[in-house]
Amino acid sequence: MTSQAPASSSSRIRRARARALLICRWARTSLRCSRLRDQAASNCRIRPWHHRCVTNSGLEHLARTAYEAHRGAHPADLPPWEETTEQEQQAWRAAVSAVAAQTGTTLIEKASPTRSLVIQTGDKRYTFQADFTAGRQGNLAISDEFASGHHCRFRVAHGLWLVEDLDSTNGTWLNGRRFNAAQRLKKGDKIKIGHTVITIVSA
Hints:
Layout: H1 5-31, H2 35-43, E1 53-55, H3 56-73, H4 86-102, E2 106-108, E3 117-121, E4 124-128, E5 132-135, E6 140-141, E7 152-157, E8 160-165, E9 172-174, E10 177-178, E11 183-184, E12 190-193, E13 196-202
Helix pairs in contact: 1-3, 1-4, 3-4
């Protein structure tokens, strides 16, 4: 029997692209007078002034703006951007990227250096430069009987640090709330794994 998962994923991307096409007609107008244009101009000084460039951070901003505008029309049905899955966010980025290509906007694949993630658990402080797992058998070893072997993963996406649960038995909690989709991290956040609390010193 043929699996329907690929068709379903393709259908979601097509629907997101169609919705984003309408929303981004408004978004690209506001782009002309937004700080994104100023930032793009400084990053593209070698290009004529009338060419528009959008960096990865600009693409992320436009995708979020398009999604939140769409969500505003369906507030009871759609979660905030931060609670959507990485697959859904990627679908919106692809949609915005396609719209940008149709309007002559240049997308610059500019990789920003990853910032270190500094965390503290108990009286110990750790610094990480790349993805890692936390748990009883993780890269960040946690001696907690309520933690799973590989409880959660800290990873980098688009220059931002995220945390995601790895189907742990007791779940992963961010600032007192259990979550399913990957969550962006910021200074002061508290991640609870079993009875262990990890504090984000800087991200």
